[in-house]
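Write out this protein's structure.
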Amino acid sequence: MAILRKLAIFIVVFVVVAGAGLFFLSRGDTADLTVAEVSGTEPTLQEPEAESFPTVQIAKPVGWEDGQAPGTADGLSVNRFAEGLDHPRVLYALPNGDVLVTLTRSPASGDDADSGIMATIRGWVASYLFSEAGAAGESANQIVLLRDADGDGAAELQQVIASGGLDSPSGMSWADGTLYVANHDAVLAFQYELGSDAVSGEPRKLMDLPPGGGHWMRNMEIHPDGDRLYIAVGSVSNIGESGMAVEEGRAMIWEYNLENGSARQFAAGLRNPNGLDFSPWSGELWTTVNERDMLGSDLVPDYLTNVPIGAQYGWPWIYYRDNFDRRVEAAMPRFLDSYVRNPEYALGPHVAALGLVFTAEGHRLGDDMGSGAFIARHGSWNRKPASGYDVVYVAFDELGNPQGQPVPVLTDFLNEDGTTKGRPTWVEWAGDGSLLVSDDTAGIIWRTLAPNSEPGAGIERLSGEPLRPQGELIDPRASFEEDYLRREAGQ
């Protein structure tokens, strides 16, 4: 009996100690830095401290009461453009002023080629997080047309124009009578004439995409020339912990050539690229990217960056040009650290940066927001205190480079008690120059503008003579000395 009593006491003590240890480890990391300190062109990057358990602080959605609306920057107003939508995510404005929105959630069963007990545990955790954050449930798999025919700032028409063939649709683009849609596993093309109440015929599949996975959204942008599509595909995992084989074709941006049907990997090393837009200054593709987790509340900041062809941003081995993630078990490709790029602009840790648009001609957000980018920060689930839950403006200089700190445009999505009224997801320009913002958990599309503003000018495209190729080998030092002597003699 004494032995049994001692054994029982040992088990109780062990359980208590283990429980206390688990409780301590699961409390997570509280941020040492402000979001502003981990934002901008020179963010503060702390020394990493790997977490055994992720920091978890979920803002549970409670919805907006009648008459409530987000806070706005000075001089702006906001109203409900549309509401009662089933988890609206991506917005796309058509040339005739109609607006399309995808009603979508994660696919019913993500085929991420992962299995085993750890995959099962991750699945349980993901399901819990999705449920608490208001993202759980069956995907509506619809594209809805929103039309404000009388110009009063609210869409009196909500018309489902497509549902067949859709499976967790996200990105959309339109050109020459064709509506392109990115499902989680394929890019489709529908026949659709502007002003129509529905697409016509069955969709054509243009290319397969890696299906499902941890990051299931597949956002898309058509090139201004109308001949290429760019499709953002996020990773399955945080840092390749499921093996790199399952990440084949992921964590990158694809380019699809509409003229010959070929596809190629355009840029890589992007853990979860989301919003896409082309710089009005240079014509170069830019994107927002959600960086890795479980390095604490201050690491790693999501970012906004340009994406030249062949760009490599280092995931999962490297972040922010020269910071190595020692947790990654997969072998790093040789010489990767020699060509990894540094992101142009940090958007803050764990803010979940999604939708992106640059200033466009005809905008009505005022002169103070007339030269930059607008970004929806969906909000953190793994930072203490929470970050994001807003729409921000990032100013750009005359050469098309981001500068300063993010400026709040729409705020007050997050309540003081840690709940949230909604979560800003996507941004898009309406035909009247207002900015539309989808709020997925609330089912609302918000519309904001400076009421008394005139339509703003567009960004003037930069131009200049390209550097001429060198015709012969020249010692640059001798060339410099010759030029210096010539200038001195002229004086």
